[in-house]
Structure formats: structure tokens, C-alpha cells
Amino acid sequence: MSTQAPHNTLLIPGPIEFDDAVLQSMAHYAESHVAPGFVKVFGETLTLTRKLFQSTSPSAQPFLIAGSGTLGWDLVSANLVEKGENALVLNTGYFGDSFGQCLQTYGANVTQLRTPVGERHSLEQVEQALREKKYKVLTITHVDTSTGVLGDIKGVTQLVRRVSPDTLVVVDGVCSVGSEEIKFDEWDLDVVVTASQKAIGCPPGLSIVYTSGRAINVAQTRQSPPGAYYASIANWLPIMQNYENNKPSYFATPPTQLIHALHTTLSQITARPISERFDIHTQVSNKVKAAVAELGLKQVASNPDAQAHGMTAMYLPEGLTPPDVLPGLLKRGVIFAAGLHKEIATKYIRFGHMGVSVTDPGRNDVDKALAALKEALSEAKQAKGL
Amino acid sequence: MSTQAPHNTLLIPGPIEFDDAVLQSMAHYAESHVAPGFVKVFGETLTLTRKLFQSTSPSAQPFLIAGSGTLGWDLVSANLVEKGENALVLNTGYFGDSFGQCLQTYGANVTQLRTPVGERHSLEQVEQALREKKYKVLTITHVDTSTGVLGDIKGVTQLVRRVSPDTLVVVDGVCSVGSEEIKFDEWDLDVVVTASQKAIGCPPGLSIVYTSGRAINVAQTRQSPPGAYYASIANWLPIMQNYENNKPSYFATPPTQLIHALHTTLSQITARPISERFDIHTQVSNKVKAAVAELGLKQVASNPDAQAHGMTAMYLPEGLTPPDVLPGLLKRGVIFAAGLHKEIATKYIRFGHMGVSVTDPGRNDVDKALAALKEALSEAKQAKGL
What we know:
The structure is a homodimer. By secondary structure, chain A is α/β, with parallel strands linked by helices. Chain A is 40% helix and 15% strand. Chain A has 13 helices and 14 strands. In chain A, the strands form 4 sheets. In chain A, strands 2-10-9-8-5-3-4 form a 7-stranded mixed β-sheet, sandwiched between helices. The two termini of chain A are 41 Å apart. The interface between A and B is large, with 59 and 59 residues. Chains A, B: Keywords: Aminotransferase, Pyridoxal phosphate, Transferase. Chains A, B: Belongs to the class-V pyridoxal-phosphate-dependent aminotransferase family.
């Protein structure tokens, strides 16, 4: 039995449902951020973050900073790109636009490589772009929260290493880390930017950034000083290194309760082989996608090879909009999200299936949601005479 | 009876001890950041923040953003100062140095006006500086966490309005908001930067920035674009306005559990006349300072008019350093902080007396701490043969 107050099941693409133990960690009593007890927890949390990324390289570096996922974009843009340098944004929707704006804020010269809604980039298209200009960084959204499109981060990185080996590969993994396989070292990634509240299963408020030695080196050898203070890698690097070496250190007060909660969820996640976690997400995703097809709904992510495993964005039947369907879901205790991609926002809804809703055998969230979706759709069609 | 696990009493100048109800709010079940329930809570929390600052001006604007207090410096530096403009930092210790570095990161031309350790600036000294150059902003630390020096924010603001009326007065209130009186509108302040984990009594992870209409106007009419993305006033302003008007809005996911906790503590704080809160902090501070004097200890903040009411920084007897005394306190269940100001760090300790440790009549934290201090000092002197 959950110790949480009764509530509707949150099945949006983040925040997601949280485990009881994680929420209990949020209520941890006050601690000094530089006292041995907390220093140990923070240090262990950094080490657990390495496991989440299947990374053992000593030159790789995790950063855990109070902030939302968006702060990670500033960390990238203010430290890894200098004024006038080129950035290539593989744009699959809403978040590519915003990451591009962030890069421009710090002086990058941004090229947006767009795809039609619901499609991901072909490697040919990316190769062509890489051959036209020298890019300091390439950014790719792993799972586009606005469309459910899964980016080919492994394939794109291989391509980059072949065509433009020094270009830093920056992955926006806010909606993928914890539900999609990422082999950080093996795939030779440079940065993954993520946040606590999606498939990692910790309440929102932590910006999580994982960096390669190559990226840290770029930050440390840049010509101009970093473009930000709070989002400066130079300010945070010694802090993270000290905490992981069990030494207190101070730049800005860490969010002690959130770090405890992250420690709890990462301990749970890494207690089993992480491949199992990705397998379960894939199985459940396949089930959801089959059920959605059976209801006659089309996914926004049109290519089966490019569909996320932690969420499903589905077009509604012609004549229905999100406000016709979401209240019917809510009446049945289930919360889905409305559309976000502005070109199609009124035509689709999003179902997040990540974390405990997928991995905890004691929950029935996904089956309940699929039953609710079927009923709510049929009710909405009837109401509209469709 | 507290519902918290038994723990040593945290009496450092932040984070502080938290109320049970506040910690329970941290464990709130998952909610969508754009669903009506959370939108209402966030909106109310913004309105409660106005009360905390005794502010009723409709042009004043609170910002509540996932981050530490330090993020507020970026908000000021990236939005209110343009490259090459002058900033005057009234430096009373550690935090003036850092705020100055943050301002420089975004291109400000920084003048540091320093005082000897433990002293605050005279108005004459500030007036002279203001007459030498035109400053876009002046920053003043309200309570210097490293020394316990209380800045004269009311007097300095009056002076600025007389001598250089357009200069924006920016208060670093991280260690003062909630324990020191601030009449934001009446004193004509422009920005107060603070954080959740000190006298406001909410766990760390929220950057809280309160701005005047004058400051917002400067941000909106600047010639160059803002210097940061996550710390951009232009990006957050519509979000805060929408939430306070009970409309969902999205720029980056807010830390939903921390917002609940802030709502709980601000509801508690504003349930009684806020002047009572400041009176209690003053009374307890007077008691602490008298007890410290009775133990023969000198305060770092040498001028009785310039001593904070939420903390006391005290020099140890000659021959003792913090590691001689802090373990004796810990043995008695009390946690104080070591020194932070680098010129004197080995010579003093800091005692935070803020929030529930001061306001909750059911607790005995301060008396317990004073008794422990007396015993720990005497033990340490004996051990050293002093």
C-alpha cells in the first residue's frame, strides 16, 4: 500500500509518479550541506549517476545542480561554445527551438536542421550539414517530449566521429534518461543534459548534466571566460569532484532533500541490471503502442524505429481535441498531457509511461490508463456524434 | 512531538531546522506543473511572497525559480546591467566577492567598496563612492552570512535616492529575509535576492527574487539582449504573471514539491503580523548576544547597530579553533558552523538562530545551544590547558 494521499495517476511525459521511498526522502530532516552525513550521500549520488549512464571513464563528470532541466542548456551554451562558433541543432520540435535560443543567448551561431513533425533526421541529412560547416557542438533531442520522436543518438555520434570528430555531441536527454538505453562511454557521447522528474523518478528541481573528458577539456581551454556564473562548469567542477571524494565543498547550497530523493531512486534503479529497466520500458511501450493502434489512433512519431519507449504521442480521431478527451481520462483517475508542438497542438495528446508506473509490479497504472483511454475516447466521440 | 527522525539540531546560518508540516509538503505526491491544483498553489505562493516583503505595489514582481540563492545574482547581473556599465558592491565579506565575480561575468565594471572585517559601510563612505561615478546598480549584503554584519539597507537606499536616484539598489537578502525587517515598497528597494533554506524555513532548492517595477523596466528596456537564458527575466516574467493569475504557463518545469513547502512555510509566517516575527528574532538575538558576551566571547560584527538578528558570529578564545569546539557541540546534539571569511576563518564560529528554532515555543533549541556552547568551550579550554 502506498503511503501517499489518494490522487489521480500522473501519466504525462514528466513529472511522473514517484515511489513512496523517494517521496519520504524529500521529507528528510535538516542537514548541513557540508556535514559528513550529507557529504557522503551527495558523493554516492554522483557515483550512482555514473552507473545510470553506464559510464566508468574516470574523465567523465556528473553535475547535480539545483535547477530545472533547462539549466543544463545554459551549462552547455555558456561553457562549450564561444561567441561566433557554430552550433548545429537537430530540431525535432519544441525543445530544439528553445535550446537554439539558449545557444544564441551565449553568442553561438546556430543552424537549425528541422524535420517534418513526427520524423527524425536521416544520417544522410546530418552528414550533409556537417560537411557544409565546422560545428563546435551538435545538439540532438533523444526523446522529443513534444512529439515522442526518438533521436538516433548512437548513429549520429558515430557519424560525427567519422565526419567531424572534434564536434561535441550534446544530447538533450530530459525525457529519455532512465527509460532509453544510453551507453555514454561506449557511444562516445560528450554531454547528456537531463532532469530529475522524468524517467529518473525524483521530484523536479535538479538539473543533471553528464559530461565527457573531451567536453570538460573544451570548457577548461576556452579562450574567453564562461558566459555564466551559476551555470559555470569552472565553478561547479571542483565542488562535484570534492563531494565525490567525500570532502565538503561550497559554491552554492545544494538542494539537500532533492539529493536524498535522487540517491533513493538511483539506488533503486541501479540495484538491478539497468538493461532490465530498458527492456521493461520497451515491453510496456510496445503494449501501449499496440493498444493505441487498435483504437485506430496514429502516433505522432510516424516511424516505428523512431518512437520513444517512455511516452506515446497520439493523434486524436478527426473532430476531437484534447479538451474533449482529457476530462474523460481525469474522471477515470488518469492524467495525460495535451499537445505541445505548436503546429499540431490541438490534434493530439501525450501519454507518459515511465518509472514506477512501468517498473513496479504492484501498480496497475498502464492497464488502467489504456482502459480509461478507450472509454474516454468512445464517450467523446458519442458526445460529438462521431 | 515532531514527526521527524531524531537528529542533531541544525543551528548554522542556513539551512535551518524545518517545521514538520513543511517537510510533509516536500513529500507531496506527483502533480502536473500545469494542472489546476498546482497552478493555484504556485499562484498563491507568489502572492504570499509579496506579503513576506510587506509589498503591495502591483508593479513589484516576485520570481520563484528552481536554483540556489546564487542564481539570483545571475538574474541581477544578466538582466539589469549591460556590458561596461558600473556596479558598486558594498563588500562586507565572502559574498560581496562572489557577487562581484558574477557581475563581472556578465560584463559589468565592478567597484568593490570594502570594509575591515566585522564592520559595515558608513553612509559617508557610500556617498563619496556614489559621487565619483555613475552606477547602474549598487549591491548590499543585508546579513553577511560569513560575519553576521547587518547592512543598513534602508539608510543606503535613502542615500542612493538622494544622490543617484536611478541607481538600482540590489539587496543580497539570502541570510536576512524572514528574520530581518524588510519593507520593500516603503524603503524603495529595487531587488532582493534570497533563497528558501534560511529564515524562510523551506528546504534548499529555490531561488527567490523580488523586484521593483523600476528594475523590471530596466530589464525590459535594455539595449542588448539578456546575458543568460535560464536566468532571463524576459523568459520568467510572463510565467510568474500567469501563475499568479491562475493560468498554467511553461518555460521550465517548476520544482513542485519545493513550491508546496514554500507555500506551507509562507502561510505559517504570514498567519501572524510579520512585525511579531521580527520582534521574536530580535529578542532571541539579544539573549544570544548577551550570553555570548557573558562567556567572554567577542562578536565578529563589532558594532552593536550592525549585528544580524538571525545569526551570531563569535570569535573563539585565543588558542582555540573551530575543530576544538564544534565536536563538543555536536556531542551535545547541536550543530554550529565553522568560520567562512577567509581572513579569520580559523578564529570564529557561527550560530544561526532563525525560523522555528526561534519562533516555535515548543522547541528549546536556543537554550540547549547556549548551554552546550558553555560546556563545549569549557571542555575545549581544559583540553588545551587554557
